[in-house]
Write a structure and sequence with these properties.
Blueprint (H helix, E strand, L loop, with lengths): L4 H9 L3 H51 L6 H12 L2 H14 L1 H5 L20 H8 L1 H9 L7
Helix pairs in contact: 2-4, 3-4
Length: 152
């Protein structure tokens, strides 16, 4: 009786249809898991960026605009504020998003409180009567409003 490891190995290698199906299911499951993990990693990455863009960055900018004065050192002061508020691992990502979206940095400072975004200017008004008479619009409206049946 010569039982060696190789003798048992030949039993494992032998063709068994049920075992082969089970092994293929196991192999398919192990190959699908990395794909799912890659998808989850990408999904979490985009969720994190969306959270930064929609929640963290606007909140920090709001705090900065309420507490900091705009001057020549505004950007350096803003960086210091971010260093105080954001943990080290996220600091560079948050700071980059803040610097690229801060309206004060993009516009060269805050807007004066009494000035709107667009100055109100009187636009030359088109003379409706002149054009309506030329194009016959009044007559067209009158015709459309007439009832086609007498007495209606």
């Amino acid at each position: 009786m010569n039982n060696t490891i190789n003798a048992h190995a030949t039993l494992w290698v032998a063709e068994d249809e049920e075992r082969g199906v089970t092994e293929m299911k196991f192999l398919d499951g192990t190959l699908a898991k990395p794909d799912v993990q890659v998808y989850e990693k990408k999904r979490c990455h985009w969720e994190r960026l969306q959270h930064l863009r929609e929640n963290v960055v606007p909140h920090i900018l709001d705090m900065a605009h309420k507490t900091l004065q705009y001057n020549d050192q505004y950007e350096d002061t803003l960086k210091e504020l971010v260093k105080e508020l954001v943990p080290l691992g996220l600091r560079r990502m948050v700071l980059g998003r803040i610097l690229e979206t801060d309206p004060w940095l993009l516009a060269g400072g805050p807007a004066p409180p009494n000035v709107g975004d667009v100055m109100d200017e009187e636009e030359p008004s088109a003379e409706f009567d002149i054009f309506s008479n030329l194009l016959g619009i009044n007559g067209l409206f009158d015709w459309a409003m007439e009832s086609s049946l007498p007495g209606v």
